[in-house]
Write a structure and sequence with these properties.
128 residues, mainly alpha, 5 helices, 0% strand, elongated
Length: 128
Amino acid sequence: HLAMTPLYLWRGALVAFPVLVAALAYALRRRDYGFAVFVLPAFGMIMFYAALSHFIPRYGMPASPFIVVCAVALAHAGAIAAQRALADRARGIGRSAASGASAPSAASAASAASAASAASAVADPHLV
């Protein structure tokens, strides 16, 4: 039965399992143990049904609210990371000195600092 567990995950938790694994990895990487504790019951339930039953998709329905919250949290974290990457790119962070980039002027540095402070004011510190 253990050899069939991946197939039962495919059958009953095609979307749920990758979302929960990504959310758990994200929470542990960020050391957000509260979010990890939130994800663990749904992850444990999915793994329990995959390991010990034939995992009909309706067995995983109680985990659906957890999966939606995890997917939204991961999407929000991805959006914040993309916003920061775009802001860093606009400010020119990451350019090497060998590429011929000159030092930014005081006016452009001030505008970049104000844009960075506005972006950090909007960001949620728990999901970043």
